[in-house]
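Lab meeting prep.
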Amino acid sequence: MDELFAAAGSLRSAYARVDWAATPLGPVPGWSRTLRAAVDITLHTRFPVTLFWGQEFVMLYNEAYVDLIGNKHPTALGASAARVFPEIWDEIGPMLASVRATQRATWTRNMRLLMDRHGYPEECFFTFSYSAVLGSGGQVEGVVDIAAETTEQVLSQRRLILLAELTDALGELDEPDQILDRTVTVLRRDPHDLPDVDVLLPRATGRPSPVVPPAMFDAGDVVVDDSAGIAVVWVRLPDASGTGDDAVLVAQLSQHLPVDESYVRFVRLVGAAVTQALHRAQTRQAERRVASLERELSEKLQRSLLTPPAQREGLEVAVRYRPATERARLGGDWYDSFLQPDGSLALVIGDVAGHDRQAAATMAQIRNLLRGVAYGTRESPAAVLADLDTAMSGLRVDAFATAILARVTRDDPQNRPGQHVLVWANAGHLPPVLVAPDGTAGLLQAPPEMLLGMDGGVVRRDHRVTLAPGSTVVLYTDGLIERRGSVLDEGLAHLVGALANRHGMTAEQVCDHLLGRYPASGEDDVALVVLRVPPAPAAESHR
């Protein structure tokens, strides 16, 4: 055997079996110096290299190149490239001819070829360069191919991209049907890995679907079936409720790819992504149901406490409560109106810090404490709020709240008909708005005082205003005027403007006007108390 092939390693016997004299290259001793040098370099490198020599592009290659052509070896050795690669000759033939004609090298990155190297047209990817090998006279004697197979990297990247797209597409969906429909839509964008995809729905949906064989998943959640000659994968998508109403992902696998461990792992990850999305949606639905139930119970509790306002002759009192629209934001706002034994009318507006079930429960506790402390005493509103602070501290009501307690009496020193006096104390709450009989509106400002629950020994102060017939006082919680990104002073100014010249409205009309003027923000509930001293009858006003 010619010593030229001494470096061929495991290919020495294959080189020895080739009848080189019967090939276009002729007997080995007659090979040109250029060919012998090219073969020597090819056999001494460990990188995949092949030579395409002469007009027929006869193939000579090293050990590393064998893995790239599979079962085409050893018959490829000494054969023309067109005979070895008939299935891809339309792609590579013109490239080889171009190098021979122009002497310019080619460069191809991750080229997709359907190569028959394991008994079927296999999807393969290669990065390679064809370069001319010149003889002593400057003519092209052959072409050298330095190649690397990138199939594994390209498939991995392609599948990772699809998994990322699927995860992203399912991330915000909350309905199982939407998730399954979107899954099919996304997966059908990848005909190379999954030529055909569908989802079989459980019988519980009432939608028809093919029957899944009873024992299909006895061996696991991912089953590959090639009994019909085409590989089909079945992936169970377990229902989080454990009822057994599982959806099933069915996908035809590519006839151009081996059904190997990496392929099955990819399908398993697809199933895991869909299952995770389904479980997340079912969890969110359960959370919404629980939150809805909690909200319903809390609202019932609130509304059971927010009773119709007490009325007194010669006054109008109207109240409103509007819950927040966001599911999780239960209310800590409340209003109250009750008559005291001495005939005075007590009005309350308050807001417990927080927006949850605890805030609603604390609101009920503070509301009832205030009623108990205030009822039957002739102490001023400031003294009642101070007593409430003490009660909250002693009873360990661990919460903060803002509140206004007001008392309305006819105790007018000048005994003017229809005149009333409003005495109030403010524990950190927003100031009331007074609408005078002439329609002018303004805030009943007072020096700020601490919230309820902050200090059991705080000294509080009363404030007093005379209400002439035709006056209106509006008590409200911050949910009426506060919005994200807004400044409180602007909200207060807007409220005063909204009430200006509304002196002709009844108390009920003022409530409706404000709730219509301030649509629900979704973030907070709203409580309103409107007190109105009706105008004196015309005949009486001229006395």
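Slide two material, second protein:
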Amino acid sequence: MAVLEEYYDAVVIGAGHAGCEAALACARLGLETIVFTVSVESIAMMPCNPNIGGSSKGHLVREVDALGGEMGKNIDKTFIQSKMLNTSKGPSVHSLRAQADKRAYSQEMRHTMENTDKLTIRQAEVCKLLVDENNNINGVVTYSGAIYHCKCVVLATGTYLKARCIYGDISNETGPNGLQSATHLTDSLKELGIEMFRFKTGTPARVDKRSIDFSKMQEQKGDERVVPFSFTTDPESVQKDQVSCWLTYTNEQTHEIIRSNLDRSPLYSGVIHGTGPRYCPSIEDKVVRFADKDHHQVFIEPEGLYTNEMYLGGMSSSMPEDVQYEMYHTVAGLENVKIVRNAYAIEYDCINPRQLKPTLEFKKIGGLYSAGQFNGSSGYEEAAAQGIIAGINAALHVLKRQELVLDRSQAYIGVLIDDLVTKENHEPYRMMTSRAEYRLLLRQDNADLRLTAIGHEIGLISDERYQKLNDKKRQIDEEIKRLQTATIGTTPQVQAFLEQHNSTLLKSGMTLEELLKRPEICYNDLKEIDTKQPELPEAVTQQVEISIKYEGYIKRQLQQVEQFKKLEKKKLSLDFDYSQVPNLRKEAIQKLNEYQPASIGQASRISGVSPADVSVLLVYLNR
């Protein structure tokens, strides 16, 4: 029987946030690329929260953008509210978050994909991977039997593999939002010797806006001045009217209803077998684990301008629908709320990510890459970050160019991937600022300065954009030098200025740089006494101010990074038998043989490998 047979350079399986970035990267780097999705309506779908960014996640979006990805540009076109989080703290934890119009976000990304050269979108379920005699990927087979030959594959299946959605005793064999699950690919992966995990995540109910009493809630408005996600977006183009979100709280009555129905929760009755995310627990999980708390926050967020559906952030659940109604009705403002879509938990197959190299290629299967929730992570932003790296490296693999690995001192993306491939993850991984040791250097405001040159070298950043970056760097350097040499004296004008800003008066002259180091003085304040201050973009003056105010801390972190780099540069063979190393502890031998780290640095981050073991390895290498 004749079957359809086609040839591509790259195949991407899945068109969620990881798949979109992977497919766009491959196509933009010149590969004939086909992306498979269970439904073209689900391209860049947001099955859970209606926002992009947030604490540490905003860093990832900025980094994806700096490398030449699409997520930042896409949310800038489709957001309905924007907020910079953590502004009361230092710049290393400032993080942008934008509420998205879900449908517009998905449609805009689909429009971009459909109009990208060398990119084909195909609605079909991939059920088998094909490898040659050397264990290199060379094609995929769809459920219809069609064969698509290729040179590389990126797996970005999200939460669709053998997915089932559960609330109470109701279990549907579907993917998110009731879409068809992918039931066949898991078996093919297991046949290839890939180790699989079963994870779970969940989502809260969507409710009818008309049935909410907002007078009992606190209004949460967006920022007056919107900061765009993408470094290419004109800040003036995103200043617009914004939609409000709302804050309310659970109470003891809510918690009592949950406690008295725990036996009906599939989470506690044994119906759910997958491991859920620790840092984004369901409301029943919160009530059990934080029994001392008498209330929890609930954020009421619009799903978009096109709909009355509102998302109940913070009240994810898999309780039966009668219990869902009962508990939601106890929350202030939700007493008469009507549910449009039930909350549910979703179980799905994913991989043990320790089977991957830091490039996101499988150690044992050449040309097969993996990204997103399929790697045991959670979140749209983590998915997009892995997607662009997997796509870049799949393309560089085909083009026979050196692949990209970002380390922990270069990017949050480097921290994310290093954590996934070196640490034991028994639950969906979530990015947090506390995971990044060098977070003062890895701020969201300087992602372009850190990564755009890399994106340009790869081929995803245009010459024009790269030139703009170099102009920005030049302006920053010139202004810092000017402030280091410009001096002020003890004139009445200067003393009055200092008095006005509650700052110590001068006894002798000082440079503007020294004055700017004072916490109560901002760069823009200096205009009053600095007659030669040039007109510079806000993005430039922000870098100038941070560089000067945090100079001592930044220098200290740079010294730490130097030490870190020394260990990263000491490479290890990926098929070495560590039992040959004398004086290594048994646990270290077992872990090192299991993980096969790429460098001494990576070896040092494996749980069970002590600093003493690292010293033994260094001595052995030096011999």
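Talking points for slide two:
Residues 129 and 191 are 10 Å apart (CA to CA).
The chain is about 35% helix and 15% strand.
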